[in-house]
Amino acid sequence: MTPEELRNIIDRAHYFGLLQKNLDGQLVHAPFSLTPYQLPSSLISQLQIHTQWSSLLFWKVAQNSDFLREILEPTAKVDEFVRFLLSLIPNEKRQDQQLLINRNDFLFERKENGELQPLQVEFNTISASFAHLSGRVTALHQQLQQENILKAAPLPHDAIAGFASGIKETIENLGWQDAALLMLVQPKERNWFDQMGLFATLSQRGVKVVRATLAEVHQKGKLKNGDLWVGPQRIGVVYFRAGYAPGDLPDEDSRSARRMLEASSAVLVPEASMQLAGTKKIQQVLADSSILSEFVPESVADQLKAYFAMMFGLEEEVEGRPAREFLEENAEQFVLKPQREGGGNNVYGAEIRDFLTSLPTSEDRAWIAMKRIEAETAESLLVVQEQAQSHQSISELGIFGLLRAQSDDLRINMPVGHLVRTKASNVNEGGVVAGYACLNSLISTDQ
Length: 447
Ligand code: ADP
Ligand code: MG
What we know:
Layout: H1 3-15, E1 19-21, E2 27-29, E3 32-33, E4 37-40, H2 41-63, H3 65-78, H4 80-88, E5 97-110, E6 116-124, H5 131-146, H6 159-174, E7 180-184, H7 192-204, E8 209-212, H8 214-220, E9 221-224, E10 227-230, E11 233-240, H9 252-263, E12 267-269, H10 272-277, H11 280-286, H12 289-292, H13 298-305, E13 311-313, E14 317-318, E15 321-322, H14 323-330, E16 334-338, E17 347-348, H15 351-358, E18 367-371, E19 378-384, E20 387-406, E21 409-424, E22 438-440, E23 442-445
Parallel strand pairs: 4-23, 7-8, 7-11, 11-12
Antiparallel strand pairs: 1-2, 3-19, 5-6, 5-20, 9-10, 10-11, 13-18, 14-15, 16-17, 16-18, 19-20, 20-21, 21-22
Bound molecules: adenosine-5'-diphosphate (ADP) and magnesium ion.
């Protein structure tokens, strides 16, 4: 590719709004791939169904606060963040409407018989991001296909439209005059453009949006008869793009703002219980089939299990040995994960050995081990900071899901679009804003 051809493509990426902020706060193109990811259409349909079952599963888990407490209390003893979230679970329901916006992430292994095996990386119940930018990279690839720069047209999708209808319907259902969406954000958000996509779509549809950090909610927010107000605005739904990391709760002001949200009558996306249902510890425990089938019918449990990778707690026995001993021998084949979201927290492969030496056994329950997924690699052309480079890469597919419920009544449960992130195969983590991965589109092949 000539420098001029690359310039033309980057100009189009700007035109289509494939943007994020750099460390100086300026809008620059987000890293993107020029090699769309291909999957058979039958497999894509299966993953969409899997996402609906997963949404159902986590919705049920979140409603069972006794289960959450039983599993997470030992973790909470050694993890202050989990302890804080557990303390938020209310004793009584304040709002019978629920809205879950999630993303179900998969990597793919090629089996010996040639089949592609999807394995779930994790199910995100808070701040599932990139719905807007994923639509933007799809639009860019559509354009490049029209210009014969790319061969095949990507699979169209509109996750943001799905999110926006779920939010609008939920607000309308509350039946309150002029209730707004509160979009809870971090103070210096580099993924601002992705959030702005949802903000603008809601504005176009007549939904009022208030954007605020927890510090701002602390300053301007209050409860009136249990209802949440921020300044002059009554809030119907709170959509969290913050509050998933301990750094978001640095002081008593921010923690008290977070408590106020949970105590209010607003619909929280997600409630603390739903956020906790999405912790790695709960996902690890659910990988045990007898526990899984307490929440979903046996046939569904079988379908969910088929995509689980092996997981265990550090406090457990594995193959007749203490987990730590087992990991000492097999570190290369595993990933260690704490109860955190947002990337950059895991320990991979051989580094697990040193890490475990420095981790006191009293903190075992703050971590889980997961079998490292050996994703199939493919040659991809990636554009990062205006440079195009070919890499042997792996791709991670996320399916966005929307679930809306009233009391025990499930009103909506559907997949609403997807996200593909492609990264060089020697990179462990997956974050786009952090510069690890590139946004990509999906091509569905018939076979
Ligand atoms: P976070 O909640 O911080 O995003 P994840 O569990 O999603 O944590 O892990 C971050 C990234 O690490 C993933 O997007 C994926 O690329 C990689 N990863 C996580 N688990 C595995 C695994 N079992 N095998 C291979 N890569 C993994
Ligand atoms: Mg993740």
